[in-house]
Amino acid sequence: MRKSLLVLLLWAPFAQALLPSPGPRLDQPTQQAIQRFLLHNRILDSPLDLDNAPYVVAAEAGRVLGANGERVHARGVLDPAQPSYGIFRRGKVYTDPKTQELLGIHADDIGTAHWVMAGDLTTLAVQRVTQEVRPGDRLLRAEPPVALASLEGPQAAPFIEGRIIDVPKGVTQIGVLDAVTLNKGRRDGLVDGQRLNVIKTGATVRDALSGAPVKLADEYGGMLLVFRTYEKLSYGLVLNASRPLAVMDRFETARQTQ
């Protein structure tokens, strides 16, 4: 018994060394940036996911618009066991920059509402709004929160490359802790927690002597953390950037250290 215990104690450090080293822990600002972004942004794989969802018919007392604190009436199947619903409106349609395949749509955040009672129409109380609620706005169940612990460890993945195709908050220059939309998703092998290198395409300049155009070498631009994957799209957060990043910059799978 003592001999077996001694062997285990001697072997433990070597066994530990064979395990993959944990990834860097996410600091508080990074965690907050992810959770804040997901409160206001969502992707749907198909337009039908939005078109078939329950929708707002009218505001309280038949008014056209609903505001924070008011009640709205909705048509469609709403589960009282799911007390809170997000209010969304169709936003930008995403297509692949190379193949033009439809990848998904951005659901614009309008607010949230709480289930109150059911009848011919379901009544909900508006709890948070980013703009006035309109008839036709859709009601969607809340997505599960990001498991932050799953974003801290290394993830094995095949080589994947793609493009940054959007910055949901609308800026043109992308910096640290900005969230971006990627044209790759679960079907391509991306997983939550994956690290991606951003590659800045080298500029094309003219040779001063020959006059011929010359393309400069591509350069490392920064690193993304994939924090929410969909079927064909993903959201990534910029962890570091050595230069301003932009839409259509290329990304590729970062090598994982063991």
Please give the domain count: 2
Distance between the termini: 34 Å
How many beta-strand segments?
A: 15
Reading the helices and strands in chain order gives HHEHEEEEEEEEEEEEEE
The level of helicity is 10-25%
Class by helix and strand content?
Answer: mainly beta
Give the low-confidence spans: 5-22
- The best one-word shape is elongated
- Mean pLDDT across every amino acid position: 85
Radius of gyration: 24 Å
Task: Give the amount of beta strand, in percent.
Answer: 35-45%
* Largest pleated sheet: 7 strands, antiparallel
Helices, by number, come to 3
Keywords: Signal
Signal peptide: 1-17
Protein name: Peptidoglycan-binding protein
InterPro entries: Bact_Kbp
General description of the model:
This protein has three helices and 15 strands. It is mainly beta. The protein folds into two domains: 100 residues; 100 residues, Thrombin, subunit H (Beta Barrel). About 7% of the residues have low confidence. Strands 1, 2, 3, 4, 5, 6 and 7 form a seven-stranded antiparallel beta sheet that branches. A six-stranded antiparallel barrel has the order 8-9-14-13-10-15. The radius of gyration is 24 Å and the shape is elongated.
